[in-house]
Amino acid sequence: MEAVLSYIIFFPLFTTLFMGFFRVGLRTLRIGAMLSSLLVFLLVLLVAAYFDPDGGMQFIRVLPWIEHYGITYKLGVDGISLVLLLLIAFLMPLLYLYMWTEERKGYWYNMMLLQTGVTGAVLSLDLLLFYLFWETMLLPIFIMIGRYGSGMRQFNAMKIVLMTVLGSMSMFFSILYLGYEFFAVNGWWSFALSDLSTLELDPRTSIWLAGGFLLAFAIKIPLVGFHTWMAPAYGSAPTPAVVIMSAIMAKLGIYGLWRFGYGLFETTLSYYAPWVMTLAIIGLLYYAIHAIMEPSLRRMFAYSSGSHLSMIALGVFLTNIYAWGGSLYFIATHALASAGIFLMIGLLYKRTRSDNIDDLGGIASYAPRFTFFFVFFALSIAGLPGTGGFVAELLIIIGAFKEEFWIGVLTATTMLSAMLYIFWMLQRTVFGPETVATEYFEDLNAREMAMLIPIVALLLITGIVPSLFIPLFEPQIAAMLADLLHSIGGL
Amino acid sequence: MLDQLLLILPMAITVIGAFFLMLLSWNKRFTLKDYNLVAVFFLSLSFILELPQLWNTEVIYIFPEVFGKMYVIDNFSTLFDLMFTAGAILTLLINTDYFKSRNYFNGEYFALILFSVFGMMTLAHSNELVTAFIALEIASLSVYALAGYHKSNRLSSEAMLKYMILGSMTGAFFILGTALIYGAVGSTTLGDIAAFIKGSGDSETLLVITGGTFIMVTILFKIGAVPFHSWVVDVYHGAPFPVTMFMASTFKIALFAIALRLYLVDFAPINAIWSELLQVITVLTLIGGSWLAITQDNLKRMLAGSSIVHSGYMLIAISSIGLGSQEAAPAIMFYLMSYFLSSVGAFGILSFIASRSQKSLTFEDFKGFAQRRPYLAAMMAIFMLSLSGFPSTIGFLGKFYIFTSAIESGQILLAGLGILTAFISVYYYFKLIAMMYFYPTNESQKRFPMDLSGVLIGLMAVLVIWGGIGTGLIPFIPGVDGFIDIAKQAVLSLQ
User: Fold this and answer.
1) Read out DSSP for A282-309?
2) Phi, psi for residue A103 in degrees, rounded to 5
3) CA–CA separation, B303 vs B297, rounded Å?
4) How many CB atoms lie within 10 A of CB A273?
5) Cβ–Cβ of A169/B404 closer than 8 Å?
6) Percent helix, strand, coil in chain A (nearest 5)?
7) Is A180 on the interface with B (CB under 8 A)?
8) Which of A193, A216, A434, A489 has the most crowded Cβ, counting Cβ within 10 A?
9) pLDDT given for residue B475 in this prediction
10) ipTM of model
11) Which residues of chain A have pLDDT under 70?
């Protein structure tokens, strides 16, 4: 039982190695990938079942790795990482279902490696182990965009790698410095989060160290100003990679803020709060305006995703329980909704070979089932009451109003602007007159329905009965928040 | 007497092998393959005889009644010897096909390789400046000749001339420095110099410092630090492939052997004096090397440029030693091992390709390589990742140790610059990966070459990964810790 997290991380990797070694055929490969992802999902459910909401960090596993520098292989799961863990494990089988007809083997291998990378980053509690996963999860994305993407794929792949590596290098520097400070104070090396968080740094150092981490996360999220990789990468990447990028990797940036930002720099992160909040609010509006103007569906939802992630980032820096709870809840529900909508765009692209809004129209009259799902996911992105996104956005907006009236007002505009671009987009794509591209539009088949229904169901459940999920992580963020407010000295 | 002879047997074998090959090459009956086998045989014999020494922690002076403390055998030199012989064996074996594909190789080539290995081994063992100089010249002269081995090729001859003229000139600095030090100390043994420095005041050590600076110039030239770098790219480009590989991986390590020994033993009490100078040179080397590497189209030239950057990383650690970092010296040793593995692998693949075609190996030539040769492309990608310091490869840990030691010694800005150049290096290394994987080709897939060079390159790739993530939990197989432990033990034997 104590090794279960390791199994969850490395099972896809071993499946990849095993199948790659024996050079299995396509059929075996995809069945193997599917089975491995289902097995991982079961294991994750098992973890969730045994998870104790009040227990803090659980399933901790520590093994020595580089003993000389006190670097350990340390894993653990708490309320926040459990949400992300569940998400990854839930989405992976659905993505495989989406790619079922995909015949390029490298595609499958890369997806499995990607799962190992993102899961590892969520579960690592040692900074260097985290860094290892954080960097390596970039490689499959690099290959996916550059090899299987569209448009200026080579250029865009290079761009995302260079920008993200710039961020992670700055984080790497901060990690090294922290490690050394710990050594200087205690006389022994450690890179474990729980050890490093006990360090008392002087405020100046602490501020620039926090900056190193923040840059990495800001690029990953991305906040406005660090976002130039986003639209090209989303535009060029193949659908499964886009889903992972928007549903998981961007969220890992937020997760990093929580786990490492607040974990290590409890008191000094608030130094950056005005900056991040300003950027986030600018991002909310800027991305939304971009989304309204964007003619390509995939890029439009890239910007929409940026807008919502800015909102989540804002929520993380508004230190009250509504905003924090809302942010964490929004991580999950937005991941589901954006996974859904990007899958729909992928399906649309397969049928029409275009994701340009001007080429589309009149899908509703040919494909009622497609239309239903498309409209549902689009509306849940916009925060349709009854879906999880609504609950989450509402919580963040309440939190924002509690903080400051004007922040609340500006935050609330996301809901309005999202309504604007979503409805306008729907009007031009699924309704209206048909075009050359949408003639004889095939409706969804059983496999595609099977892939979408679980997401719809989960979005509805999270929207109607949030009380099922919130207790899972609420005690922990309440405790973290109390701790934080205590240490920055105010309530 | 006998046990002392046994100890120097590994070095003796290489030089005997070199003479043997010279004699052999009179006779025209033997083929290149024979020469290669003989050379590898002698080198392997030396390697195997030396290997048990790795567990020997004593410091032994050879024939002290005759040579004094000129020639030392310690763990440090043993580790370097093993790297030299292993490097030479690998360059010979991996390039088997290359030798066949070019008509200008003959028996003397292998003799020269063995001579230069002998020179490098002596360099690692020398505990005295004149011995070090002679050893350095033995190694250098052989490498000059090797660089110009393709006599009819204009580039190769240019490389040889450029390297030899500049190299000999800077070699003179070494001997000048030695003379100055002898003038002040009255001895050229490292221990005596260190004792003299400890026992005397600032005004008396002035000559020693000047002499040390001159010696440093020679070493900086040979490792290609900016501003002594102007030869690197042209020489690496002009020299035949196996020679470039030998220079980049093996010969460079030899220079760090002597640099470390000088710095850690000889000038230990005053090495802080040079740290500012070294810092300036490091900054120039990192930036200049990155610039050289970015702007190249040809892969050999790119790797030459990036080898300057790698020297820069190690220079960071050298000045950390001067500023009192305990971790810096093992960090350099580890970095040398990691650079050795990755660069031998990368050059090996290049030479593999070059032996089957007459391409000049620009980035463009690699388009679609992953489709033609998926396994080789994957290995090349692994080596590139390791060179760029991507986590989960040995190159990452090498950088980790170097930068940690830099922070430990308070050189925070230098560590930051190092990380920045590591970021820049991601660009030029990933460019190759992008070329290999992101462009389609019409050529059909070829089978993995299950010959010796293919297997050896594969082994290097596995080692690169294992050195980056290997766990110590598996009995009898050293994990990540094992590598750094070996390096630490070697450095300890110096004190």
Assistant:
1) HHHHHHHHHHHH--BHHHHHHHHHHHHH
2) -105, -10
3) 11
4) 15
5) no
6) 75, 5, 20
7) yes
8) A216
9) 66
10) 0.92
11) 488-491
